[in-house]
Write a structure and sequence with these properties.
This protein is 36% helix and 17% strand. It is of the alpha/beta class. The chain has helices at residues 2-14, 18-25, 129-135, 147-150, 162-176, 195-206, 240-253, 261-266, 269-275, 302-308, 326-333, 341-351, 359-365, 367-373, 375-385, 388-399, 423-427, 433-448, 481-487; strands at residues 29-32, 35-38, 40-41, 46-53, 71-73, 83-84, 88-89, 96-102, 108-114, 138-142, 152-153, 159-160, 183-193, 214-218, 315-321, 403-407, 465-468, 473-475. The strands form four sheets. Strands 3-4-8-10-9-13-14-15-16-17-18 form an eleven-stranded mixed sheet, with helices on both faces.
Length: 494
């Protein structure tokens, strides 16, 4: 039976196009800590390995080393970790990495990408070939456990942040296996957008010294202390009590006690993900520092630790979009237009319903902006500032001497760039000045710990800002006072 299969496979290969036969014959093989993997050489002459396991894990257990015999196929992207996406998708055997190396290069820096998705969705980037070539770096994209399977708490005193632990495991694995993919273990840069940016901040404050050479936080989220606990789906860190309540409710829905791991492991993952839909799962962090009265249960976020200087000092890029919440604003209040006073108030009341902050206090603080900029744009600014825009600015202030950018390539139909719109340009296959500029800056940071390079517009350190658009520009500090005098305590900057 096996011999027949081998003969059939061989016949199929040699019936292929000559170029495909050559690529199969010359397919790269890498030796990693778990075993050997066979990748492919892409049409761009980039070596690619898909779905390389960096760990294994039972449900609700810490990640552990994994191994296999023979040569494992790594030519097809793996399924994502289980998540809700028009029904439940994904597979629990999902702790894998995709790796892309420009051909003919050795001892390159490594750029480790962490995907976003509010810690509840997302998957490893499937094609890092263009960025690998432009940045002259090894690109590694990883997956980590999400939602109810990645973050669980049997009680409020013991949050189990399996997804964050996966990230630390993946970071160490990347360093340990750097040479196998032509990488330099001493130059590992971590980067990510949204929840990926928040995860980068977490790694900077928890990883052992020496693992991270540089970092880029793109629109990092954090703990939105103004939110009523568990009331909104876009908080990247939550209070332990919120996570414990979410875990207990989900466990009850599938007929298990919250601390009965044996029972929970017998339940199909689709049932757990379905039961957790609409319930807020995210990392819950406990620290020894006294609680911020505005942050429920004393959650100590990476932002607060960065502010204290309790992190790996290194080269950091931080930034975001020119209109983070423009898309969300359009969904709430319709497309850009001249909102009436009543429409503006109604939108604010809806957005801040059930939160710890009064919509009227927000309206008062932004009254001058509403007069100067118009109500729709002010609403967009409020929604942006209350989340990722001020979070990015405060992360930049906490780091102090990093490099700050603002992505300004306007999203079609909106007056600015919306949340998460920068990273697709970083990975974009099609040649463009903007994609090339971003890859050069990020790549230079990975190579030398400084984004500046001979062919680019000089990028001064914070508080200067680099504007990323079809034409790159620099300007002096554009920090908005609202972030510091209004939102800072609510976002954990204290």
């Amino acid at each position: 039976m096996r011999l027949t299969a081998v003969i059939a496979l061989a016949g199929g290969i040699y019936a292929m196009d000559p170029e495909i036969r050559r690529r199969w014959r010359d397919a790269p093989i890498a030796q990693v800590t778990g075993g050997r993997v066979r990748g492919i050489t892409t049409k761009d002459n980039v070596t690619a390995f898909y779905g390389v396991p960096y760990a294994k894990a039972k449900r609700y257990a810490a990640a552990a080393p994994t191994s296999w015999s023979g040569i494992r196929d790594a030519t097809v992207p793996a399924e994502p970790c289980p998540q809700m996406a028009h029904g439940v998708i994904g597979h629990e055997d999902c702790l894998v990495a995709n790796v892309f190396t420009p051909a003919g290069n050795l001892n390159l820096p490594i750029m480790l990408q962490i995907h976003g998705g509010s810690m509840n969705a997302g998957r490893a980037v499937a094609d890092g070939s263009a960025l690998a070539k432009r940045a002259k770096a090894v690109i590694v994209s990883i997956q980590y456990r999400l939602g109810a399977l990645g973050f669980w708490a049997a009680n409020a005193s013991a949050p189990q942040n399996f997804g964050l632990d996966d990230l630390l495991f993946a970071l160490q694995w990347t360093r340990d296996n750097a040479v196998a993919f032509g990488g330099d273990s001493q130059r590992v840069m971590v980067f990510g957008v949204s929840a990926g940016g928040a995860a980068v901040a977490h790694l900077l404050t928890t990883a052992p010294p020496g693992l991270i050479f540089a970092a880029a936080m793109e629109s990092p989220g954090g703990h939105q202390g103004w939110m009523a606990p568990g009331s909104r789906p876009d908080d990247d860190f939550v209070a332990p009590s919120v996570l414990a309540a979410a875990s207990a409710a989900t466990a009850a829905s599938v007929g298990c006690a919250v601390d009965d791991v044996i029972c929970l492991r017998k339940v199909p993952n689709s049932d757990i993900i379905t039961a957790a839909e609409g319930v807020r799962f995210a990392p819950a962090l406990l620290r020894a520092r006294p609680a911020n009265p505005l942050s429920a249960d004393g959650v100590e976020t990476p932002l607060a630790l960065l502010r204290l200087g309790a992190w790996q000092q290194g080269a950091v890029i931080i930034g975001g979009q020119s209109c983070e919440s423009c898309a969300a604003t359009a969904a709430l209040a319709g497309p850009p237009r001249n909102l009436t006073h009543f429409e503006f108030v109604d939108a604010l009341q809806t957005y801040f319903a059930g939160s710890r902050i009064a919509w009227s206090d927000v309206a008062t603080r932004y009254a001058k902006r509403a007069t100067a900029e118009g109500r729709w744009r002010t609403l967009a600014r409020i929604m942006s500032d209350s989340g990722h825009a001020c979070s990015a600015q405060l992360h930049a202030l906490a780091v102090a001497d990093g490099w700050v950018y603002e992505f300004e390539k306007a999203t079609k139909g909106l007056p600015g760039a919306v949340h998460g719109s920068d990273e697709p340009w970083l990975f974009q296959e099609k040649d463009s000045p903007l994609a090339a500029a971003m890859a050069a800056y990020w790549g230079s940071l990975a190579h030398a710990g400084d984004p500046n390079h001979a062919d680019g517009v000089p990028w001064p350190r914070s508080p200067a800002v680099l504007g990323l658009d079809d034409v790159v520009s620099t300007r002096t500090d554009t920090r908005r006072p609202e972030c510091l005098d209004f939102w800072a305590p609510w976002l954990g900057f204290y």
